Amino acid sequence: MPKRVLTGVIVSDKGEKTVVVNVERKVKHALYGKIIRRSKKYHAHDEGNEFKQGETVRIEEIAPMSKLKTWKVLDRVNTHATPERVDVDA
C-alpha cells in the first residue's frame, strides 16, 4: 500500500526532533453544498531539527515512532519561488 503524503504548514517546532504540521483541506458541506475548510494537526519526525515554524512542508506516513508520531517530514515546499527571468527581444 502506498504511503500517504500531505502538505501543510509547521505551527510548532518546540519539541526535540518533532514538528507539528497543520494540514488544511477543502470539503463540500453535505447539506448546503458550501465549500468549507477543515484542518488537522499531525506530529511529524524531524531528525535534524532543520525545519522552523511557518515553513510549508510535505510529510509522509511511517510506522509509529511514539504515541503521537506516525509521520516524518520529507522536504520543504518552495512557496516563494520566483519565476525564471525571460528576456524578450522586441
TrEMBL record:
Name one cellular component (GO) term.
cytosolic small ribosomal subunit
Keyword RNA-binding: yes or no? yes
In its UniProt record, a GO molecular function of this protein is: structural constituent of ribosome
GO BP, sorted A to Z: translation
**What's one Pfam family the UniProt record gives for this protein?**
Ribosomal_S17
Task: Give the keywords, sorted.
Answer: Ribonucleoprotein, Ribosomal protein, RNA-binding, rRNA-binding
The record's SUPFAM superfamilies line, in alphabetical order, gives:
Nucleic acid-binding proteins (SSF50249)
Highest taxon above the source species: Bacteria
The family assignment reads: Belongs to the universal ribosomal protein uS17 family.
Q: How does it assemble?
A: Part of the 30S ribosomal subunit.
* Function noted in UniProt: One of the primary rRNA binding proteins, it binds specifically to the 5'-end of 16S ribosomal RNA.
**Alphabetical list of HAMAP family matching this protein:** Ribosomal_uS17_B
Q: What is this protein called?
A: Small ribosomal subunit protein uS17
Please state the gene responsible for encoding this protein. Answer: rpsQ
